Amino acid sequence: MNPTCIAATLLDRSIPFIRQQFVFVALNLMIWDIFFMIRRQKLTLFTDCKETNTVLDLKKIIDGVTKVNPEDQRLFKGDEILDDSKLLSDCGFSTSTARAQEPAFLGLAFRGEDGEFEPLNIAPLTQPPDLPEVMKQRGEPSSDGNSDQTEK
Which residues are registered as beta bridge partners of 106? Predict the structure, then answer.
């Protein structure tokens, strides 16, 4: 008997309170993580949240790393400033738009000592240098799709 059948059998025989608790846990497990890459100047943070978390919850995670209070942070999705009270799912983030292998991008700005938020400033990522010739694999496909295989 597979685990689903066992769980269904237990639910049929359980008292209503246990049935409600089981359904709640099952629904809670169906909420998947969404992943973010958060950038400010040369700082890059990777984190994950639930779709049901608020923007403020995400700022609290950032606070744990940067030690900057959530009220002194501003998160951007493109040019749009995200509202602290909104759910991440209401901001357009979902498991299909913010996956682990392709996280959603957010900009981060901090409040300065003058009380004003700094403008969004994200330094471009650097590109790694080309591999030296000795490290390139022989027989590697060329740009035209043909393989460069030489015989010895």
Answer: 38
